[in-house]
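Lecture 7 notes. Example A: sequence first, then its structure tokens.
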Amino acid sequence: MWYLNGSFMSSGLQVLVSIVEASHVALYFSASWCPPCRWFTPKLTETYNELASQGKRFEVIFVSSDEDEEAFKTYFAKMPWLAIPFSDSEGREALHGRFDVSGIIPHLVILDAKSGEVCTEDGVELVSEYGVRAYPFTTDRINELKEQEAAAKANQTLHTVLGTFERDYLISNKGDKVPISELEGKYVGLYFVVNGYGPVDDFTAVLVKIYEKLKETGEKFEVVSLFLDNDVASFNVSFANMPWLAIPQGDKICEKLVRYFDLIALPTLALIGPDGKTLNNNVVDIIDEHGFEAWEGFPFNSEKLEILTEKAKAKAARQTLESLLVSGDLDFVIGKDVAKVPVSELVGKTVLLYFSAEWSGPSRAFVPTLIKEYKKIKEKNIDFEVVLVSSDRDQSSFDKNFAEMPWLALPLEDERKASLNKAFKIRRIPSLVAIGPTGQTVTNDAKSLLMIHGADAFPFTKERLDELQKKMDVVAKGWPEKLKHELHDEHEIVLMRTNVYVCDECEYLGSSWTYRCEKCEFDLHPKCALAEKDEEEKATEETPAGYVCEGGVCKKA
């Protein structure tokens, strides 16, 4: 038996002396305010109830990180297991410390109820991946499951991937049952999706066109959707727009296939060959890169991918500023007061495409730096401009964002933004892409270059960067090899060559040369490490007689 003083049931019934009759006990560190916890709790509840129905002696005890008792009670009311009383803050804190939870939740520690020994602290991962199959959560059991998965992959067929003992069919969006055997000998794309997710919706639109084109050309190709959410109404709406097949809504095999194909992002399109073996765990990046034209690379083997690569190179070589910024009648950008500026006026200039949004904290933080360097570059180079490509969600946010910027922009509701985000594979903002005077892409990471070199990075070419590097190498010969610095007085910092880093004083990016303490992973820009304080700054740092300054405060001695 395993004892826990003061636990009680969600009904409020006290469990005196708390003799927990179970072979295994899980301590569930969770909170109602935590989205990952709210996602995991139903999964744990399902596993708990299923184990109980099988007669397995498994108990869970909720250790709350809620901020008040009302939130605790509301959250706990949805749980079928025990809990540490919210009033027992000392006990809850002791368990957090004992298992080093440190605020990272959800966290599930599974114990042997008889000995109290820890079976695993990876309970969240195991329950998420294996559910009841993970019981009794021992290392031997997990290794056994992994061996079974490896064997299943080695002997994979279309039926072992898509079927179950109870189901040997898929469904069409008309409700027809289609035997899995009808897909044998075909290429099959397993399409992992969720309803109402923008990137999935965008990719689906492209995949439908590719699917129809491949069907038209006689390719033996089918797609099977796996919906990962449980909203039946949304499933029906989304599936109605898909001309292929699907695994029935709510089928638990979908969860198994998430793990089986190492799903890490949505959308994902895994490709299975005519022999039932997996050819590629995800071809989404290939389709994202080439768009509808990706159909020419099907089935995405090395030979076909080489064809796509050569076509992409030829297309890039033809790139001009007009091909990027002109689409039909949309042949302009806007300035202040929504004044239209023809794209033709930007031809022959170095143009930075600035992908940003007012809601993005990093974007707001970068704007002052970009404005400062923009003005410096414009003072010496009239053939230079920046164009904002906004991801703002409404016109008022766009107007607020654009108001402080001295450059140009694409209108908020502009179809060209989608093609630019796709062309340059914008995955995060802020991003800064440099287009040279010929219309060719100079660099997709002008932001880092500006952060490191400031306005001196212009025009962002390799030749300019090489020139800056040579100048810095010459200057570096006059710098001391080692020195002590007040920000890191425990060790000497050593001058060395390096790649990109963040300076621990000014917090800006640096590259090429740094003063570093490798033991402490401490870096300083040479200009920060070697900076001389002026007399005024030194004067302000002198401590008046009778005072002691330390720990960020000054006080009388």
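Example B, a different protein, same format:
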Amino acid sequence: PSDTRDAAQARVRRAPAPVTDVARLCVCDLLVAQCDVNCCCDPDCSAEDFSLFTTCSVPVVTGDSQLCSQKAAVYSLDVEANPPERIFKLIDQVNPSIFCIHATNYEQALYLKSPEIPTPENFDQFIDKYGGATFSAEPDSWNLDTDAQNPPDANETSRYEYGLPVQTEDAFLRLPSPVVSSWCSDANPAGFLVNQATKCIRAVSVEKCDSIQALSMLFYINSSILAVPKSSQMVNITVQSIVVQSLDGMRTLLSSSDVLRLPMVLDELCINAVLGVNYHITHTDTGEIIEAAAAFVLGAISKETLSIEQSFEISFTQENTQPVPLSGNPGYVVGLPVRAGFQPQGYPFPAAFLSNKHSQLTILHSTSTQDCLAAQGARAPVLFGYNMISGCKLRITAAMKCQPLAQTLLDVLKGQSFPEYVASFGNSQVQDVLDWVPITQLLISEQMISHTLQSSCQIPVSLGIEVKWTKYGSLVNPQARIVNVTATITTTTLKQLRSGRERIIPVMSSVVFTDISSPAEPSYKAWPTIDIKLPFDFFYPFV
């Protein structure tokens, strides 16, 4: 019917509602909770900050450039104002190309989902699904109705983003912290994916112990967390564990955490008072909270106590993943371990790296006896930025055979599973192949150390690791990035000792960090000099 055809044509002519709110996008916002210089779209910048800007580094912010019609955020500076101020405009931008996207109806492309990592266990399934000449993506739905795909609240976030307050049914998840002084403030919200640890002082009174909310477990678990912002789906906070601390500081883990222990006055003591809370939040890769747990430390407060110190901590873990300790975010932090791993044998292609036992690069750990055979297996983590040296002594007798001795020394120097790769950043993920730097291994031979022996063999006597790193990113907040790692094994020629003879040789390991960053170029250029002679009365009547 003509009415149906006209309605369909009108629906096609009408531009779909934007999926992305460009007013909230900011590609130059690099610093967390800090104002980036000349970044006019940075929400952390105030009017005072904008008045000091000289230009807008990103004047126009758009979404997908292939859309036929979309909103564009335009930023500029009004330098004639006193003080200068930022000008923000939201305009409609039309794509002049005839080949453009009118509606984004592929729902799976609207957010980034972490791909499943191939492993030896699921590799056959991937071959069956993707091994043919063609395969189907099998989307959940193909919705051609732009009105249905863009509800009125399309611009509202449907997932948590980094730094957003974790919402509860009444307000937000509280993480008490000191604000101006060391006293606790309950107005500090917990930010999504922001691991925090705080300590603060709380005023207490034993007589009013049972009426102080901050001393009760219910104060920290009675409000359910919203799975996603502004939703009706709730996630209850469960009690993971309860530890009771005595007046002398001794702690005891309770066998059951099902029963709430509320503060109460007993024999001039306030028992079951909350001394510490540790939240652990589990979320999906799309920013949805699915589990929340809290571990409590309860203690007793004496009558003479007027204030106590409380500690609070919160951590986040993605589901179906094992928490891996990071050494920086993103760049390495001086003093934290260098993360390392290896590519498993028989892996079909280099798509992922498995970490070693401790996910760290290690060297020989010196012992008090300085005996290499006793030090076998003792390892020390390589700490970023710290040059290290360690060693031991090996007593060689005529009864020792060459090949077993060489292998034993190699195990002492490199460990049982020497890694093949090092993470370039402190937060590199195992599935990000380009974030892992291969370790280059070299072998150097030295001269003979004995001339009185009949036959000879090569034994390793030292391992030298050189880590080259550079400053990466903004000059305001540079991040340490490892770009090259070289492990050099030095061997020496040792001849077979005569019967009854023995020799002691030193074995050494070392680590050296080298900064290969290029010096920052100045942002100004020297003014050219002009070699001219001015008239003698040029400055008259001034001298």
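Note on Example B: Confidence is low (pLDDT under 50) at residues 11-15, 139-156, 348-352, 448-454. The longest helix spans residues 402-414.
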